[in-house]
Amino acid sequence: MPTLLHIESSPRKTRSASLEVARAYLDAYRQIHPDHGVDVLDLWSTELPEFNGDALDAKYADLSGETLSVAQQHAWAHIQHPAQRLHDADTLLFSVPLWNFSIPYKLKHFIDVVSQRNILFSFDERGASGLLKGKQAVVIYARGLDYSMDSGTPAHSFDFQRPFMEAWLRFVGVTDVESIIVEKTLLGSEVDRVARQAARERAVELARAANVSVLE
Asked: What percent of the chain has pLDDT over 70?
């Protein structure tokens, strides 16, 4: 069964702009694809494995071609488990608020844990190759201000949110990426309302135009 995986990285469940737009996408997606599965990974209610100790030793043992100890195998299985949800999904939906010009630390933690050789990418003398090829991604970015090149300010030079996500997705093999940006949410209730509405409409449009041939 085709599956969409929604990765939530905002802890603000009631007023989050990124989650509000993601829900609009999901509502439209479910209407169009009622037989598809939807998996939700809330990074704020999920205990992500730490990447230290046996997990770190397992990484370097694997790189060196050494046999993993029982403890290392156990730690590596904890790394593979959250990554498998990315492999099992056909569509990846990310809701990403901007924190300190970048992404929330919970999302960075998740990415750091799962981005391992032979889990999300392969690597040889020719370089790295992503292992999530053939998937679609929709990324919803929420920002309090205008970080676009057209803002008339140097704010765009502080945007490490969208560039980071796009670079990581390309690295792990996802090249079919759509972006929805809801911004200027801190510039008053009316500006916020209009921005959210425009982003919700764009989300519904993208959900209805989803490439079903990839999913089915």
From this structure: 97
